[in-house]
Amino acid sequence: PFYQTPNKLATMKMRIVMKSFLVKNLEKKLISKFSPEFLEIIDESHKHAGHSGVSKSEDTHFKITIVSSSFINLSKLERHRMVYSAIGKEMVSIHAVSLAIFTPEEKKER
């Protein structure tokens, strides 16, 4: 399914693979902060089930792809810091996040 925010109905496509409480919070924070043209949050926790310190029922590992003009002229490090800052306290319950952060132009080039 695709989800659209009111401020970008014509251009925004967001695909949310899992809709757990944590994913909903991540989605809300990232949309609020970056008004992305594309946002994909994939829960990859099942790939890590059985690893030391990981419960089967926990949302612990995520892959986030985000495309936003908010990242224009920023380094990879600056972009990562911005995303980590935006998701804030949610990071306490997350073990690992893989980030793919692009500007609209960079995404077109891929």
Uncertain stretches of 5 or more adjacent residues: 1-18
Structural class: alpha/beta
Number of helices: 3
Largest sheet: 5 strands, mixed
What's the SSE pattern?
A: EEHEEHEH
Strand content: 15-25%
Question: TL;DR?
Answer:
By secondary structure, this protein is α/β, with parallel strands linked by helices.
Give the arrangement of secondary structure elements.
Layout (H helix, E strand, L loop, with lengths): L1 E2 L9 E4 L4 H14 L3 E6 L17 E7 L8 H12 L8 E7 L1 H6 L1
How would you portray this structure in words?
The protein is an alpha/beta fold and 110 residues long. It is built from three helices and five strands; from the N terminus they run ββαββαβα. The protein has a five-stranded mixed beta sheet. α2 (76-87) links the parallel β4 (61-67) and β5. The longest helix is centred in the N-terminal third of the chain and has 14 residues, at 21-34.
